[in-house]
């Protein structure tokens, strides 16, 4: 997952970031709404973790603005409010889920997975295309009798392709989804990771096809 944490308590945000990164996620932190607005305007996120009370505004106003712009980014609100009316209000204005502070990080990570499953309409514990099965939680692909481990960005890249097989992605779109804003990305970075995945898919009936001058897509061999 590529996650945006919007939380002004920096100790909590940094601790949550470290936890999620240990689970092979890519994480950005925004400590105010201005920074958060900038981030979502320049890059793609799979999910947003949103605090309500922020130094430059109300997270609910931010959530409404995101939905008003037809941005279908999954949002989980992290709130200290536990009244039923508050929780109903959050769902009504566009939150996909909420979690009451204080919370266990493992519960929040599980909620992220559940929300993403609902959004994709697929079971994120196992994605399949052709004769390959991708297991995101164990960073493994399987086909035939082969079980092949994936490194972090190889996993993320193949997950993008498996969630949208036969859809064409430009290098810019893949870079946006694969790297953080702060990452230093070389011009041929996507080519390198595509090349690594192609080697690991040898023997399966799927491949990553290059459409010259446009980008890449996951296809079945004819």
Number of strands: 14
Shape: elongated
Determine the N-to-C terminus distance.
31 Å
Supply the CATH class of the largest domain. Answer: Alpha Beta
Helix percentage: 40-55%
Question: Which segments are poorly predicted (pLDDT under 50) over 5 or more consecutive residues?
Answer: none
Q: Taking Cα atoms only, what radius of gyration do you get, to the nearest Å?
A: 18 Å
Q: How much of the polypeptide forms β-strand, as a percent range?
A: 25-35%
Biggest sheet strand line-up = 2-1-3-6-7
User: What's the total helix number?
Assistant: 8
**What is the residue-mean pLDDT, rounded to a whole number?**
88
Per the CATH scheme, the topology name of the largest domain is: Rossmann fold
The string of secondary-structure elements, in order, is: EHEHEEEHEHEHEEEEHEHHEE
What is the assigned CATH homologous superfamily of the largest domain?
A: Response regulator
Number of individual domains: 2
- The appropriate CATH architecture of the largest domain is 3-Layer(aba) Sandwich
> What class do helices, strands and sheet pairing give?
alpha/beta
Mind summarizing the main beta sheet? 5 strands, parallel
């Amino acid at each position: 997952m590529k996650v945006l944490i919007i939380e002004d308590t920096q100790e909590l945000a940094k601790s949550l970031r470290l936890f999620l990164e240990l689970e092979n996620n890519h994480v950005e932190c925004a400590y105010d709404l201005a920074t958060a607005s900038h981030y979502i305007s320049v890059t793609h996120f799979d999910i947003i973790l949103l605090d309500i009370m922020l130094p430059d505004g109300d997270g609910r106003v931010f959530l409404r603005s995101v939905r008003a712009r037809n941005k279908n980014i999954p949002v989980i609100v992290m709130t200290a409010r536990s009244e039923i009316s508050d929780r109903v209000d959050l769902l009504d204005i566009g939150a996909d889920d909420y979690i009451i502070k204080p919370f266990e990080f493992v519960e929040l990570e599980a909620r992220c997975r559940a929300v993403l499953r609902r959004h994709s309409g697929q079971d994120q514990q196992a994605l399949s295309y052709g004769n390959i099965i991708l297991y995101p939680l164990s960073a493994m692909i399987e086909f035939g009798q082969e079980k092949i481990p994936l490194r972090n960005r190889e996993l993320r890249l193949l997950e993008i392709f498996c969630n949208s097989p036969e859809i064409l992605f430009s290098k810019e779109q893949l870079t946006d989804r694969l790297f953080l804003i702060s990452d230093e990305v070389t011009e041929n970075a996507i080519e390198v990771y595509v090349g690594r995945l192609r080697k690991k898919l040898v023997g399966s009936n799927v491949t990553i096809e290059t459409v010259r001058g446009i980008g890449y897509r996951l296809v079945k061999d004819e």
